[in-house]
Design a protein that fits this description.
The structure holds two protein chains of two kinds. By secondary structure, chain A is an alpha+beta fold. Chain A is built from seven helices and 14 strands. In chain A, α5 crosses α7. The longest helix of chain B is centred in the N-terminal third of the chain and has 16 residues. Chain B has four helices and 32 strands. The termini of chain B are far apart. In chain B, the strands form two sheets. Chain B has a 20-stranded parallel sheet that branches. A twelve-stranded mixed sheet of chain B has the order 3-6-8-10-13-16-19-22-25-28-31-32. Classes of the chains: A alpha+beta, B mainly beta. The interface between A and B is large, with 70 and 76 residues.
């Protein structure tokens, strides 16, 4: 590229950026343009005014490990909200990097394992797959895009149309290797889960994870264990955070049987894995099945007849039959890996065995029956 | 093995890292859907295009137009799960293309206003089977929709399925080899006319179901001037689906809906019944929804031609025929029109339901109508004659009545 071409491109980009509402045109081709993550192929590190965080109850995505960051303009204010997503300033960048542990037994293969702690990723041990970016634009809207890492893990490139990546994952506990297609979502699929209100077209999107109750957990930072909300207070002004820490809401960790009871854990699982669509304003609202923490009775699926499951109905009548996971359609749809039955449709191709076990245990514990009279 | 897997994975990385590589024709179509904004027109060229993901739109005033429903084919054979097309928005228009072999629904449009679907086909290859996608064309939670001149074949639930929607016009569509040809569910104000429903399990259904959030009770459907014939395909839906209960050989079925007018239709060759009118109680499923009305009320069936029905009943109608013998009622042939006759302690007299018949021409008028008294069905009750299914030659006095004509749907402007 000649100097003249570079200049021309630069001025064009400037012009486009300055037009109101013309935000999408300046979408970076490369992830490093955001100034959030930096890789030399050996270590992935954060840069800029950035904090790392984790979710106590995460979305299941084919056992991918996740490295999450929040970056805000220096000195900017984040508005605290007791419920819902924190009010992040314009210019905020939230990233989520999906990666797997490399399998020493199978070059090119991956192995199931726990998420590493800390504020960087050792790329000799782990393979980066994709990084999803949510960026709060000048008009206040959030933009969502995915960047796919190259094999040498030095750069990640914009991939708007999604991608299916053939992969294999070994489960050392079971001694099994599963082949699967890892799905990078396309830019439109991001909107389905992240929609603010799916019942009206083009209502915009928002983050799901960074709420007070999801952030109100401890993380192992380089400087020691600290509450993630306190860490946020170090990179931004978080003025209205309630001083009394015990007043802060907190999500339970669904995988931690000691931290919460069965009902709480199952509901936390259903919320983070299903409620982004299965709520009153979500993409699945017409189903009438809502898995929010507030839902109850047939709205939550108890003795609720499915109405439009199509070929996903599997000869079962009710979403949840108390005491009977084997005849509860909800379980069947979590266990399906293809066809109309499969739920969720985006973001997984494997079964979350531990998640299914939790939901089965919860349904088994419920009493009641679905008899007509 | 490992070496092959490694090669495949490396190839995938390579594909990912060659940013800016030329997109295939199918990828270009996918990109047009992803980039669709208010006012976009997506033009689909002639040809067959393969997709392994759902095509999805969220925008207003978008038109998707192909070169013809037999010329532009969007194939989803390679898909693992998902619908063919998902869309939401106002003033959406889909015209002149075909959808093939989607794993879930063909074209699902939800939360929409002023939708037009015109000359679109949805098909599943091979014989009809349970693993086919559930719905062909599926507008749900919409306002003002028009579906016309379209063709749907092979849906394992309903071919043309309109759910929880207000102001609907469905006309000149052809539906075949689906479980339900056309189904209107929990919807308000539908005009369904000049359609051809043939070789489905049931031809045209008007249903209202409990536990639905957008519209709790369906009301106001006019089903007229349709040609409904030979809908005798064995039911291939999952048993848990409500259409799984539809007996093979059903022309029209009305379940728990209010204000339905059925007129001017030709309903021909149905092994179970020309018309079934029933409450939701007959499904023997629980009703936990306090806002739900389980009875079919204000049903006016007039000026139809009903030919050759009830000659080889299937499903629950076969069970009723067999059971009725124990109650001392010998149905040689099931009547054209079947009513469940359930009062469920909520009504005193069946007349309160306003189920009315006038001027229907029947091939076997001596086998016109049956009140199946399903409330008391069962072997023991049959033996003690507590269960009293009743057959009538001609229309029984309680149903020999007329109702005011329902108004035409006028809100759908593109249909004028």
């Amino acid at each position: 590229m000649t100097v003249a071409q570079t200049l021309l491109r630069y001025t064009t980009a400037l012009l486009l950026c300055s037009l109101p509402g013309w935000s999408g045109a300046a979408l970076p081709d490369q992830l490093d343009t955001y100034g959030v993550l930096r890789s030399d192929g050996k270590t992935l590190q954060v840069q800029g005014n950035t904090m790392v965080y984790a979710m106590a109850s995460p979305l299941f995505t084919d056992y991918a490990l996740k490295f999450r960051t929040i970056t805000v303009p220096a000195g900017a204010r984040v508005g605290y909200r007791g419920d819902g997503v924190l009010d992040f300033p314009v210019g905020t960048i939230i990233s989520k990097t999906f990666f797997y542990a490399k399998d020493p037994q199978t070059p090119g293969g991956w192995v199931k394992g726990p998420s590493p702690a800390g504020e960087s990723i050792d790329l000799t041990q782990y393979q980066l797959v994709e990084t999803r970016i949510l960026q709060r634009d000048t008009d206040g809207n959030w933009l969502a895009n995915a960047y796919v890492w190259n094999e040498s893990q030095t750069t990640a490139s914009l991939r708007r149309i999604g991608q299916s990546i053939p992969a294999s994952l070994r489960d050392p506990a079971k001694g099994q290797v599963q082949s699967f297609a890892y799905g990078v979502p396309n830019a439109r699929q991001c909107q389905t889960c992240h929609a603010v209100n799916a019942t009206v077209g083009q209502s915009g999107i928002q983050p799901i994870g960074p709420t007070a109750r999801h952030l109100n957990h401890s993380y192992a930072y380089a400087t020691g264990q600290a509450n993630q909300l306190e860490r946020l207070g170090q990179i931004a002004r978080l003025d209205d955070l309630p001083a009394q820490r015990s007043d802060l809401p907190r999500t339970v960790a669904y995988a931690d049987a000691r931290g919460a009871n069965l009902e709480q854990r199952a509901r936390a699982y259903l919320e983070i894995n299903c409620a982004h669509c299965h709520h009153a304003l979500g993409d699945a609202r017409q189903s009438g099945l809502f898995t929010t923490l507030q839902a109850s009775g047939s709205t939550l699926g108890l003795c609720k007849q499915h109405v439009a499951a199509g070929s996903g109905g599997a000869n079962m009548t009710f979403d949840i039959v108390p005491g009977k996971p084997q005849t509860s359609l909800l379980v069947h749809r979590m266990e399906a890996t293809s066809g109309q039955a499969m739920m969720p449709r985006v973001g997984r191709s494997l079964v979350d065995a531990e998640g299914v076990a939790l939901i089965k245990e919860w349904i088994s514990s419920l009493s009641g029956n679905c008899a007509a009279r | 093995m490992a070496i092959f897997r490694r090669a495949a994975i490396a190839a995938a990385w390579l594909a990912a890292s060659t940013a800016g590589h030329a997109l295939t024709a199918a990828e270009q179509i996918l990109e047009q859907f992803i980039d669709a904004k208010d006012g976009s027109v997506i033009t689909l060229p002639a040809g067959q295009f393969e997709f392994n993901t759902t095509l999805s739109i969220s925008a207003n005033n978008v038109t998707v137009k192909g070169a013809g429903m037999d010329k532009t084919v969007l194939s989803f054979k390679g898909q693992n799960t998902g619908n063919g097309i998902d869309a939401t928005g106002k003033h959406l228009k889909f015209e002149d293309f075909g959808i093939l072999d989607s794993k879930a629904d063909g074209l699902k449009v939800q939360n929409c206003e002023d939708l037009v679907i015109r000359r679109v086909s949805v098909n599943w290859s091979g014989a009809p089977k349970e693993t086919n996608g559930g719905y062909g064309l599926y507008p749900v939670a919409c306002k003002r929709i028009l579906v016309e001149d379209s063709f749907i074949r092979g849906a394992s639930d309903s071919g043309l399925y309109v759910g929880q929607t207000e102001d609907i016009v469905l006309r000149r569509n052809r539906v075949t080899e689906n479980v339900a040809g056309i189904e209107i569910e929990n919807s308000l104000r539908a005009d369904v006319y000049d359609n051809e429903a043939f070789a489905n399990t049931g031809g045209i259904l008007v249903f209202s179901m409990p536990d639905l959030p957008v519209i709790q009770n369906g009301a106001g459907s006019r089903i007229f001037n349709n040609r409904i014939r030979n809908n005798n395909t064995p039911n291939f839906a999952g048993k848990g689906n409500i259409v799984g209960l539809v007996p093979a050989g059903t022309g029209i079925m009305i379940l728990a809906n209010r204000d339905v007018e059925v007129f001017g239709n030709t309903i021909e060759n149905h092994q179970s019944a020309s018309v079934i009118v029933t409450s939701f109680y007959a499904s023997e499923r629980p009703i936990k929804d306090p806002n739900y009305e389980a009875q079919a009320r204000n049903t006016y069936i007039h000026d139809n031609v009903m030919l050759n029905a009830g000659y080889d009943p299937a499903g629950i109608v076969a069970d009723i025929k067999d059971g009725a013998w124990w109650a001392g009622v010998n149905f040689k042939r099931m009547p054209h029109v079947l009513h469940d006759g359930i009062k469920a302690g909520k009504i005193k007299d069946i007349a309160e339901l306003n189920l009315c018949f006038k001027n229907n021409q029947m091939s076997q008028p001596q086998e016109a109508f049956a009140n199946l008294d399903l409330e008391d069905a069962g072997l023991m009750k049959a033996l003690v004659r507590w269960w009293k299914p009743r057959m009538y030659a001609g229309v029984p006095a309680v149903h020999d009545c007329s109702l005011p004509a329902l108004p035409a749907v006028t809100a759908v402007s593109a249909a004028q």
